[in-house]
Design a protein that fits this description.
The protein is 78% helix and 0% strand. The protein is mainly alpha-helical. Helix 3 packs antiparallel against helix 5 and helix 4 runs antiparallel to helix 5.
Length: 96
C-alpha cells in the first residue's frame, strides 16, 4: 500500500495510459472473437505469446516453482492456440 500511495502524478498517468491501451487491446480482441473474425484468432495468439518474454525475464530475476509453472502453462496455451488456428476451418453452409 505504501508503494501505491508514494506514486506521483506522472507515474499515475503512465499507469492509467497503459491500462487504457491494454483494455482497448482486450476489447478489440474480444469483439473480433465474438464476431468470429480470423484476424482476432491471430491477435489472441500474439497477445498471449507476448507475455512469455516477461515471464522469462521474471524467471531470470528470481527462479521459483510458481513462475516456472506459469511459464509452462503460458507456453502450452500458446502452443494449443497455434494448433487450433492451423486446423482447416469448416466450410460455411449456404442457406437456401
Amino acid at each position: 500500500m505504501a508503494k501505491v500511495l508514494s506514486l506521483d502524478a506522472r507515474q499515475l498517468r503512465a499507469i492509467g495510459a497503459g491500462t487504457l491501451v491494454y483494455s482497448a487491446l482486450l476489447l478489440t480482441e474480444g469483439i473480433g472473437l465474438l464476431l468470429r473474425r480470423r484476424w482476432a484468432e491471430y491477435f489472441t495468439v500474439i497477445v498471449t505469446a507476448s507475455f512469455i518474454p516477461i515471464e522469462v525475464y521474471e524467471l531470470t530475476r528470481r527462479l521459483t516453482g510458481a513462475r516456472l509453472v506459469l511459464l509452462g502453462v503460458n507456453v502450452a496455451v500458446v502452443w494449443y492456440l497455434i494448433v487450433v488456428l492451423r486446423r482447416p476451418r469448416p466450410k460455411k453452409r449456404v442457406r437456401s
